[in-house]
Design a protein that fits this description.
Arc Repressor Mutant, subunit A, mainly alpha, globular, 148 residues
Length: 148
């Protein structure tokens, strides 16, 4: 099932059950999707929806960190709930070992020899891990394996 359809169905379900947090979170994601569609004058595919979900997830995690620093338990709880809801629409991520194996395969495939080749490796990896590993984790794994 297409991700946009899943989001719409989940929104309808949240409205029927009266789940305000889920409804609010999905509406924010749907608004972000609609904004991209209007700005670019396209209909987004699943890959673009995944990218939007990951961007929203990253934003929520940053909000969570700020709320924790400020000692705001109410905002921490709200951010954690939103993160949990967004995670239900994202595919299962890679474990650290799986990610390192993919990175090592890309290093071998591109013939990278050191940190200067990081761009080549990232370009080869990102399409393979799209939606399943955030860019910062991938970058850290590439950097680690290229500096060994």
């Amino acid at each position: 099932m297409e991700l946009k359809t899943q989001l719409n169905d989940s929104l309808k379900d949240a409205m029927k059950t009266g789940d305000e947090v889920r409804k609010r979170t999905i509406r924010m994601v749907m608004a972000a999707i609609k904004q991209v569609e209007v700005d670019k004058r396209i209909s987004v595919d699943d890959a673009a929806v995944l990218a939007i979900l990951q961007k929203d997830l990253k934003s929520r995690k940053e909000s969570l960190e700020e709320a924790q620093k400020a000692g705001r338990a109410d905002l921490v709880a709200a951010s954690e709930a939103e993160i949990a809801i967004i995670n239900t629409f994202l595919p299962k991520g890679f474990s650290a070992d799986e990610l390192k194996a993919i990175v090592q395969a890309a290093i071998n495939e591109t013939g990278a020899t050191g940190p200067a080749d990081m761009g080549k490796v990232m370009k080869a990896i990102m399409p393979k891990v799209a939606g399943r590993a955030p860019g910062d984790q991938v970058s850290a794994a590439v950097k680690e394996l290229l500096t060994k």
